[in-house]
């Protein structure tokens, strides 16, 4: 009996040993490799390589690979290092100090210093330009640079640190030596940018492609893995799918009806993302629009539009269930911020007809109450949705003519234009972003640069917009956001319909494709690697996975740093960051300078505080 037990124990231990070997081999097989070209379908033409001028998704997709922010975010929206490896925020929220990596250079070889950060944010705060982040800098008092690698922001009121990590392009730091004293509209760097990022722009042919090339001097040790990224401009999702199946692109969002077929293929990987913003009907509150279309100022008419629009049909027939029905400005991807008690407007055409009759807009002999021209951008989901909505509104006596604008033109004319929607009464648009900051942008009475293209104005909303940006308690901030949603749904400057979602497919011989960035429209490719690549050269450190807060860990021995495992240019990877992520292979690299001591670790902001 004892012998039998010993045999069984021996077999069990042998099995454990074999499985452990298999596990180690499997892990080794997932070691990132170097080389390869990643080809993606890019949904539109990059408008500019200048984040001061354009910060929408088609441009941001390039910017995120060419530039860096002071800090960025992980998928849980914690702040994590980028150009700054640690930071200190004062208890009152009025002083923010960042400590910068000392081994960063611009693509032209010039050193990156605190002077660049000071220049960049002073530009954003100036009167000369209008940017997305500018409304959050109204309380900025000064930016101090006590040395080349320390920068301190001082505010008259508390300021949310998440400001530095907003996903729009104007938070990417631009080089002082390239932009100082120049005309930002005509500077050659608008098309040939000089950044600090993982890739350089080797070629930019508008309406055709952008070729990104590996930055061999990137400050994040061992990154990027890829040699090149080709961003092919393809507006049409069907063309993108054809190119994908032909092996001409490795990454695309297919037409919804083709998704089930593509997901069955063994060479296809995928990930799904859900927007934190909303697709909405935006009414125009400019006086010239009201003079031309007086009904747009009538709350009963706006309520009738809401009840005449069947958002569930749009979710199912246009987005094939990938989107989610929402009722406020906060999207399904930011559910913690959604006010469940905000007024809802369900589809009810009979009630819509009743409200229009009460408002004094009866049907004529042809069954039409009023008609107007409706501008939209040329995204397929917008065009298809509006064709459905057109028929819904026709049933209650509202007749529209749809006027389709090329995306870039729509953004330049209406979204960023000084006159917003001009005299058009309303439009259909998706506006993404995470509350509270992005919510402020949609509602602030100062329209230019805030995406409030309908010029909605409400004194209480304005006050709440200021309050939420200085309130440091996350629960109190949520209460403010709840009140903003409540007021918005009572006054109906927007009719919120759905929160966009998409499934991206990619060729699965590329790894680390799903981005950690919270923005679904701009992905960084610095961590993507190709399984047919080459192992690193013996003198090249192997980059570890980017940890949520590697800089916060105490420095380990003296090996070279992982991608985000340790603070400092050549500091050692710590045992782990605050939330994990060892700097892989640090102990096997050639000996480097000793990393910073653990007692200088960054002060992390808990997830809920960084929202």
Global outline: globular
Strand order of the largest sheet: 1-10-9-8
Rg, rounded, reads 26 Å
Please state the second-level CATH architecture of the largest domain. Answer: 3-Layer(aba) Sandwich
User: How many strands appear in the DSSP assignment?
Assistant: 21
The CATH topology of the largest domain, please? D-Maltodextrin-Binding Protein, domain 2
Secondary structure class reads: alpha+beta
Query: For the terminal residues, how far apart are their CA atoms?
Result: 62 Å
Number of domains: 2
Task: Give your account of this protein's structure.
With 611 residues, the protein is of the alpha+beta class. It folds into two domains: 37-273 and 502-530, 3-Layer(aba) Sandwich (D-Maltodextrin-Binding Protein, domain 2); 278-499, Dipeptide-binding Protein, Domain 3 (Dipeptide-binding Protein, domain 3, Roll), CATH 3.10.105. Helices cover 26% and strands 18% of the residues. The chain has 15 helices and 21 strands. It has a four-stranded mixed beta sheet, with helices on both faces. Strands 4-5-7-6 form a four-stranded antiparallel beta sheet, covered by helices on one side. A four-stranded antiparallel beta sheet has the order 14-18-13-17. Strand 6 (140-147) and strand 7 (150-155) form a beta hairpin. The longest helix has 28 residues, at 2-29. Mean pLDDT is 81; it is low at 12-28 and 542-611.
What are the main properties of this structure?
2 domains; D-Maltodextrin-Binding Protein, domain 2; 4-stranded antiparallel β-sheet; 15 helices; Dipeptide-binding Protein, domain 3; 611 residues; 26% helix; 21 strands; alpha+beta
């Amino acid at each position: 009996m004892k012998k039998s037990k010993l045999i069984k124990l021996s077999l069990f231990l042998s099995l454990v040993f074999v499985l452990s070997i298999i596990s180690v081999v499997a892990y080794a097989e997932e070691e990132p490799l170097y080389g390869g070209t990643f080809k993606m379908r890019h949904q539109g033409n990059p408008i500019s390589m200048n984040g001061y001028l354009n910060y929408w998704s088609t441009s941001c997709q390039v910017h995120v690979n060419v530039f860096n922010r002071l800090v960025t975010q992980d998928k849980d929206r914690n702040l994590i290092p980028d150009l700054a490896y640690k930071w200190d925020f004062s208890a009152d929220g009025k002083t923010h100090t960042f400590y910068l990596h000392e081994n960063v250079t611009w693509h032209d070889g010039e050193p990156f210093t605190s002077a660049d950060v000071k220049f960049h944010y002073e530009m954003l705060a100036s009167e000369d330009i209008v940017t997305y982040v500018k409304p959050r800098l109204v309380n900025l008092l000064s930016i101090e640079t006590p040395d080349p690698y320390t920068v301190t922001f001082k505010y008259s009121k508390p300021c949310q640190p998440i400001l530095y990590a907003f996903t729009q392009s104007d938070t990417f730091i631009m080089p002082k030596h390239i932009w100082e004293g120049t005309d930002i509209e005509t500077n050659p760097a608008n098309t040939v940018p000089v950044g600090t990022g993982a890739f350089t722009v080797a070629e930019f042919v508008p309406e055709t492609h952008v070729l990104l090339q590996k930055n061999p001097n990137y400050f994040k040790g061992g990154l990027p893995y890829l040699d090149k990224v080709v961003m092919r401009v393809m507006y049409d999702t069907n063309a993108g799918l054809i190119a994908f199946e032909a092996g001409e692109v490795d990454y695309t969002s297919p037409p919804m009806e083709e998704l089930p077929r593509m997901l069955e293929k063994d060479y296809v990987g995928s990930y799904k993302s859900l927007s934190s913003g909303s697709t909405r009907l935006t009414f125009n509150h400019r006086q010239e629009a009201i003079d031309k279309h007086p009904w747009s100022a009538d709350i009963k008419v706006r309520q009738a539009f809401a009840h005449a629009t069947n958002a569930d049909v749009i979710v199912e027939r246009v987005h094939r269930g990938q989107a989610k029905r929402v009722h406020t400005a906060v999207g399904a991807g930011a559910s913690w911020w959604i006010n469940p008690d905000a007024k809802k407007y369900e589809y009810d055409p009979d009630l819509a007809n009743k409200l229009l009759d009460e408002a004094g807009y009866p049907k004529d002999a042809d069954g039409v109450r009023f008609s107007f021209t409706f501008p939209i951008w040329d995204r397929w989901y917008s065009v298809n949705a509006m064709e459905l909505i057109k028929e819904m509104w026709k049933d209650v006596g509202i007749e529209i003519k749809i006027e389709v604008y090329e995306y870039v033109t729509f953004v330049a004319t209406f979204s960023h234009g000084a006159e917003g929607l001009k005299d058009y009464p309303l439009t259909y648009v998706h506006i993404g972003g995470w509350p509270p900051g992005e919510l402020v942008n949609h509602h602030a009475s100062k329209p230019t640069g805030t995406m409030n293209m309908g010029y909605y104005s409400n004194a209480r909303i304005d006050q709440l917009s200021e309050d939420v940006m200085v309130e440091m308690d996350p629960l109190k901030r949520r209460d403010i956001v709840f009140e903003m949603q409540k007021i918005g749904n009572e006054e109906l400057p927007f009719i919120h319909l759905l929160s966009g979602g998409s499934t991206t497919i990619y060729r699965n011989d590329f790894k680390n494709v799903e981005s950690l960035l919270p923005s679904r429209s701009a992905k960084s490719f610095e961590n993507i690697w190709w399984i047919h690549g080459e192992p690193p050269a013996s003198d090249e450190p192997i980059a570890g996975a980017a940890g949520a807060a590697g800089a916060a860990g105490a420095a380990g021995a003296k090996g070279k740093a992982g991608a985000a495992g340790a603070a400092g240019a050549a500091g050692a990877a710590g045992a782990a960051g605050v939330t994990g992520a060892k700097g892989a292979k640090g102990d096997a690299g050639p000996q480097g300078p000793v990393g910073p001591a653990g007692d200088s670790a960054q002060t992390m902001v808990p997830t809920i505080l960084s929202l």
